[in-house]
Amino acid sequence: MKYNKWMTYIVPSEWNQRTVTEVLKGPLLLSNRMINRLTRSRGIRLNGSMPWLNRVLKTGDRLQVAVRPRERSDQEPEPIPVDVIYEDEDWMVVNKSAGIKVHPTQPAEGGTLTNGILYHWKETHGMEGIVRPVHRLDRHTSGLLLVAKYAYAHQLMDRELREKRIRRIYWAVACGRMGEVGTTGTIDAPIAKEPNHPLRRRVDRGGDHAVTHYRVLDRSKKATLLQLELDTGRTHQIRVHLAHLGHPLAGDKLYGGSTAYIRRQALHAQQLHFTHPLKGEKMIFTSPLPQDLTDLLEKLGLYTAGDGK
């Protein structure tokens, strides 16, 4: 996968008979200023040729824009293993291990997923760039993370996220026995910073809007296996919401979870669903539970199919 400044958009049926300008401003979200810059630099192509901006498009037309600049990160590449689930010229999905930070939080800090991705790009594709995660995963949360390779690619996916067209599904083990197997519910509770703690968040009516949906997959005397889906992406959202219900995540010492069976929060980003903004293809990715969580389920007598205990 060599460097290519051109990003390609295949015109879908819903944009048939619309002009180049309408598509550039519509699904591609380009500003008038950027369109003018691309026009001056001959950075717009339609089926391989430079088009008039009032040209009417047809379904299947290939519209290209030169929006991939050459960039270099301030972070250094490091040979840290990265489990790449999917990758194209604009985005990648990685399966993050628990215990590794996504980004450095201190100057010159290394050992993060970002350092490993930069190394992967350099060794596999001979390219540099800036790592731009589309959503968040805490250091001790495992599972699927969507990463954009360029600012413009991040902008497109950030719109999908804000308009709730990216589904993020998690599996978690909560302390205590919650509801019946199959029970569903929604936690709609705003989240704010804890005033006297540098890391903790809490439910607070003056906080940011936060919504989490859950379903009970199984339960035992000591714990409950949950599937959760986020409508919003606040810091520590699942951790705060479950603690608010009185059922903190197993292993989540910060929010009162028991560390008797696991030393990190029992939270795994298990599924990621979205439609590729440029190809129009539905993308679904699944990550199996890591070994420490499967061991935890066994210790607590929980099973992913549920057995009505």
Automatic annotation (TrEMBL):
Pfam families: PseudoU_synth_2. The active site is at D138. Residues 91-244 form the Pseudouridine synthase RsuA/RluA-like domain. Keywords: Isomerase. The keyword 4Fe-4S does not apply. Its EC number is 5.4.99.-. Gene3D superfamilies: Pseudouridine synthase. One of its GO terms (molecular function) is RNA binding. One of its GO terms (biological process) is enzyme-directed rRNA pseudouridine synthesis. It catalyses: a uridine in RNA = a pseudouridine in RNA. InterPro entries: PsdUridine_synth_cat_dom_sf (IPR020103), PsdUridine_synth_RluA-like_CS (IPR006224), PsdUridine_synth_RluC/D (IPR006225), PsdUridine_synth_RsuA/RluA (IPR006145), RluA_PseudoU_synthase (IPR050188). It comes from the Bacteria. It is an enzyme of class 5 (isomerase). The keyword Isomerase applies. PANTHER family: MITOCHONDRIAL RNA PSEUDOURIDINE SYNTHASE, PSEUDOURIDINE SYNTHASE. Belongs to the pseudouridine synthase RluA family. Responsible for synthesis of pseudouridine from uracil. This is Pseudouridine synthase. It comes from Desmospora activa DSM 45169.
